[in-house]
Amino acid sequence: MSQPLVAVLMGSTSDEEIMEKATSTLKDFDVEYEKKIISAHRNPKKLSAYVNEAKERGVKVFIAGAGKAAHLGGAIAALTTLPVIAVPIAGNDLGGLDALLSMVQMPSGVPVATVAINGSKNAAILATQILALGDDAIDNRLEKFKADLGR
Ligand code: RP5
């Protein structure tokens, strides 16, 4: 991997299984990414430092997967002008509705695009669509993907 365009973050190693669909989908689209496990609640200073330097290195989109009182997407959006796509992850107790509401109910001025509970594949597709606005090669791969969806 050379220059990551997408940063795939998650709050815990326990999120990795669900977030694997995001990274495998980015691989399928040949989109460079990097994966980090940083909790917004357990390690806020590390998260802040990472988000601030990621843009300087050329990251264009963040994907943030987290469960429970899921603050990760909102915390990233508070720190950057880059687009943030959040994936609510289903824990055992409330089935992911807790994380969904935490992510989707952002205050005015700080948007976070939120996909379905455990919808990490769609997060990767949306990130790819954002990148395709300025990259014809990625756009061509999306066109083929869309055409194949209907077959
Ligand atoms: C969230 O709490 C994480 O994103 C994870 O989904 C959930 C549980 O984390 P662990 O206690 O399994 O580390 O912050």
Class based on secondary structure composition and strand pairing: alpha/beta
Which second-level CATH architecture applies?
3-Layer(aba) Sandwich
Distinct small molecules = 5-O-phosphono-beta-D-ribofuranose
End-to-end separation: 32 Å
CATH topology grouping: Rossmann fold
- Order of secondary-structure elements: EHEHEHEHEHH
Q: What gyration radius follows from the Cα positions, in whole Å?
A: 15 Å
Q: How would you describe what is shown here?
A:
The chain is α/β, with parallel strands linked by helices and 151 residues long. 46% of the residues lie in helices and 17% in strands. It has 6 helices and 5 strands; from the N terminus they run βαβαβαβαβαα. Helix 5 (120-132) crosses helix 6 (136-149). The radius of gyration is 15 Å and the shape is globular. The protein starts with 5 loop residues before the first strand and ends with a helix. 5-O-phosphono-beta-D-ribofuranose (RP5) binds at residues 11-12, 14-15, 39, 66-68, 89, 91.
Summarize the model shown.
The protein has about 150 residues and is α/β, with parallel strands linked by helices. The chain has six helices and five strands; from the N terminus they run E-H-E-H-E-H-E-H-E-H-H.
